[in-house]
């Protein structure tokens, strides 16, 4: 086992998949000699060459469009969107073409592609480099939406995404790229897309999170444990398809549910989790379902103090846990 950062685990996954399958290639802005703005593809251009590590124009529509066409011809593209904020020009290609190709062709055509994008705040990036866009895509049948929270899952889930026969949106919490570290094995492994993970067992309340918020939630759980509150933490990992069974089982065990994400509150992914609990575990609840999310303002402010006000953090999550536990 070796300890690596989140970004290194992602780079390793792409390196191993490029080596394993010559149909795999990467395209996106600055992914070539520079190695990407976050250095996720650092060294891959020298190793695999310009035919497989392809610098694209500054045109997200074409990055995804090229990926769809290549996937239809049997290749396995990994399309990097430099920041999730800039994925919107490619929205029609993703939602109306990639997501629907298998259905519209009666299963004859598949689009085996991965669209990677760093998302979320915490780096002082301001309005156009801090958005959380996952909820847009979890509304779209035909897509899978994956958000890892640690290096082990990031590597295993990305390898599974590359091998999946249909399109996978793979969002990476940029704040966690070098902040989050963890051990990964030396040998080959994958993590299946779909199942959530109970990362910490508990009895007093269930907390559901993903990405950097899962990392913060584990810290918050440690804080309240010192006060005698036992929080069960569930890392959702895959938002579409959602693992209803794990969500429901956890709520039936604890009787209380807190959902944490850094996207805006209204229409955020937490609303879907809350609806699942209300419909399928209502009689197990000892308190109303609680959500902790960013306020309904356009995006994380550039100012660091204002950014801290905007984003949930371990202290805010711990306060929400205490309030729910004492309800």
Structural description of this entry:
With 327 residues, the protein is of the alpha/beta class. It has two domains: 2-184, Thiamin diphosphate (ThDP)-binding fold, Pyr/PP domains (Rossmann fold); 197-325, Rossmann fold (3-Layer(aba) Sandwich), CATH 3.40.50.920. 36% of the residues lie in helices and 20% in strands. It contains twelve helices and 14 strands. It has helices spanning 6-20, 44-48, 60-72, 91-98, 101-104, 134-137, 151-163, 212-225, 244-254, 269-280, 304-310, 314-325, and strands spanning 2-5, 24-28, 53-55, 76-80, 114-119, 144-146, 168-173, 181-184, 197-200, 205-209, 231-235, 238-240, 257-264, 290-294. The strands form three sheets. It has a seven-stranded mixed β-sheet with strand order 3-2-4-5-7-6-12, with helices on both faces. Strand 6, helix 7 (151-163) and strand 7 (168-173) form a beta-alpha-beta unit. 50% of the residues are buried. The mean pLDDT is 97.
